[in-house]
Amino acid sequence: MFGKFDSDIIYEYTTCVSFFLDDLGSTEELLYDEINMIISLDVTAQDDVAFIHFLNLKRDTEERYGERTMPIRNNMDMTEQDYTEFLSTYGFFLSDFKKWLNNDYLAWGLRFPYNPEEFYTTLNFKE
């Protein structure tokens, strides 16, 4: 969605997470899950540099998805309590990741992949 709910862009997607046993090239899958996500961000661009600021980066817990109590594939005998703890820890990671993106990675903007000196691009979202 563009220009809705006090943000420039709202993006919903699914994160696929797999963990494998790292033992001499083993390909044994320990866990696989699909986590519904939602991002909202503000974007501006000036002189071919995009300035992106993440407002939200979190799990999408809308009722339409339902709340699973176990991962899709669980070959490590994870309990429901373990899975709840995994999702909680993942939420803390997302919070720290958002801070890192805003404060370190995106702080000075991202240059557009083209650079025609005759044209400078500016991007604005209108209500």
SSE layout and pairings?
Elements: E1 9-20, E2 29-46, E3 49-59, E4 73-74, H1 80-105, E5 110-111
Antiparallel strand pairs: 1-2, 2-3, 2-4, 3-5
Q: Could you explain the architecture of this structure?
A:
This protein has 127 residues and is an alpha+beta fold. The chain has one domain (9-111). It contains 1 helix and 5 strands. It has one helix at residues 80-105; strands spanning 9-20, 29-46, 49-59, 73-74, 110-111. It starts with 8 loop residues before the first strand and ends in a 16-residue tail after the last strand.
In short:
The chain is 20% helix and 35% strand. It has 127 residues and is of the alpha+beta class.
Which characteristics define this entry?
single chain; 127 residues; alpha+beta; 1 helix; 5 strands
Net shape: elongated
Q: Could you give the distance between the termini? A: 13 Å
The helix count comes to: 1
SSE order, one letter for each helix or strand: EEEEHE
Uncertain runs are: none
Number of self-contained structural domains: 1
Q: Calculate the mean pLDDT score and round it.
A: 83
Number of E-type strands: 5
Fraction of residues in H or I helices: 10-25%
Q: For the CA atoms, what is the radius of gyration?
A: 19 Å
Structural class: alpha+beta
Sheet with most strands: 5 strands, antiparallel
What fraction of the residues are assigned to beta strands by DSSP?
35-45%
